[in-house]
Amino acid sequence: MSTERIKFYQTGTFTAGNRLLDEATRTVQSRVDRTNSLNSGHRACQGCGEALGARYALDAAMRASRNQLIAVNATGCLEVFSSPYPESSWQIPWMHSLFGNAPAVASGVAAALRAKGRDEVTVIAQGGDGATVDIGFGCLSGMFERNDDVLYFCYDNEAYMNTGIQRSGSTPPFARTNTTQAVADHPGNPVGTGKNVPRIAMAHGIPYVATASVADLHDLERKVTTAIGVQGARYLHIHVPCPLGWGSDPAHTMKVARLAVESGLFPLFEAECGTVVRSTPIRRKVPVERYLELQTRFKHLLGPPQDTNAIAAIQAIADANIVTYGLWG
Amino acid sequence: MNVQMEGSQAVAEILACCRPEVIAAYPISPQTHIVERLSAKVARGEIGRCQFVNVESEFAALSVLIGASASGARTYTATSSQGLLFMAEAVYNAAGLGLPIVMTIANRAVGAPINIWNDHSDSMALRDAGWIQLFAEHNQEAIDLHIQAFRLAEALSCPVMVCMDGYVLTHASEPVDLPDAAHVDAYLPPYQPVQLLDPNDPVSIGAMVGPDAFAEVKYLAHHQHLRALDLIPELTQAFEQHFHRQSGGLCSPYRMEGADIAVIAMGSVIGTIKDVVDELRRASIPVGCIKIGCYRPFPMLQLRGLLEGVSRVIVVEKDLAVGVGGIVSADVQRTLSGRQIPVHTVIAGLGGRSISTSSLKQMILEARAERLTEPYFLDLNKTVIEQELARRRDIRRAGPVAEHILRTMNVMGTKVS
Asked: Measured between CB atoms, which of A96, A107, A141 is closest to B53?
């Protein structure tokens, strides 16, 4: 019998469906023995990218660490929707202290484990973009420069969503938030502001920095597994759409995340000791409008009349990423 | 072992005997000598596998200990002044989570104006954060309180601050009796946590708690403090049996037999007050002194007992509740509710100003003669105050107050303008 080899993109989707893979290369999430680190029953919104990212990241981390994992959580959506007393969705040892100190608390956990000779236990810290790039940034930088044995996950949904959609240092240009409103002549978040924390993490010379997206969960799991195998400070910046804050359809979370990657706005790469060593190529480049038009936070740019200058500026950012990270061919 | 040693160095020596497993430190005067010496001891491997983490802020220092303590490690840090305020959010958090962290406060004024010298403003700012606060009179007591603090903290799963006056004690070289590690071991058992981050027995720590249970969690913290009021006398008694000296305790009287006036204070100023009491007693003035050794929880019952028969109370405190007056005196007044005796508030030693025996003696005599203003500011330079008030009445853009006062008093070498 003749067989025809079908590639993923020929199935009409860019997701690497588990059914098309041999068992060994399927996701951790698709395995019967997954740990459900963040268990069902929590209170995240429909279509929450952060809940999805955290579930994949933590289960992959659990598998890679042979279930020897301690997680520290910053204040934020993930902490709130997973923990209201007396319920907890956490099946792993989990601690929440404050908004701005998760990296330091994790450093403390790592120090205690070292003092007790428990080298087999992996410490992860996690928080949203507000906790990571803004209020916890001092502690994050301190954890990096000491090269503490902590893996940090930043779930980036590009604003303070827990407090009701306010601008963070990770909010993209022109995005509308409740503190960067598109009123009068203001086009939302000012252009030329914000910070690129993966690059800043790289500048600390730490052994491993990577970006990932819920658009590519295989890639996310692989990067988590790689990171667990590395000693020292590691940083994984995960792009997680927020339907509530972005004004996108909860059913479109994966689509929106994928368009961020495919447009070049959110480049996927890995860096070792300050140098980019790998990037994930874009398979079909899409204009940024396809990404913007699914989100009401950019509605004021799309018109009518369309703000062609703003859209061109966003396209320029995507194009620059494609060149910088070699995403196209 | 009897040695002549700087207070900070002695605290570091005794800390090593207490076998901490994680120390996090950020430099701030006047506590730095403690952690400097500890870093060397850790580096030499003198404290087992203890980890010394050089952090980027006091907020991080306490946060590191929060993580380490929840992971079952005995933890320690030291700070002062702005440092304590910078870590304030974590100070509340550590207590709310019930983590038995021990922290030395080398007491120092809080700016502005920036001032590195001793008063109690820093500890006072965090007095309601849920930490037990012990105050040392001298360096021997500071050492002994650290040993007791770990045992107390771990027995109650509640954090403890050991407060010692910055410079006055931290930088003073005094003879002290330093117990050895084996002796400390016999008094201080290994830390057995009540909650633990353990992959083999997962728990969630630090969950969000709503109106349905928040008050109960807070009440239980209060309950632990009330237990401390029973436990501290037991621990000090056990300490005395083991180390053959009295140290610590809730509050200690000095020459209170037949005393008509009681002077209440905390920390190193007690030594000066005792001298004044001796002098006044020689002049047949019935004065006594009470040292508050444990400020949080506040030992109301014990203090009330010691104040039986006293007809006048003077609280000498190194802090100021701006717009109110005294802080400690408010607690003393509450202690004496129902008893119609005067409680004078004396604000003294702010920003390191010396508290002299002559000023104290004069103040006590004035109080006795009902001539003390309330609150009374010991040795306040009223001429400067009046000049400055007049100047600010006349000139709208009067400029920064501190710099102008320094210029008026001619204590600055150069003119700042």
From this structure: A107
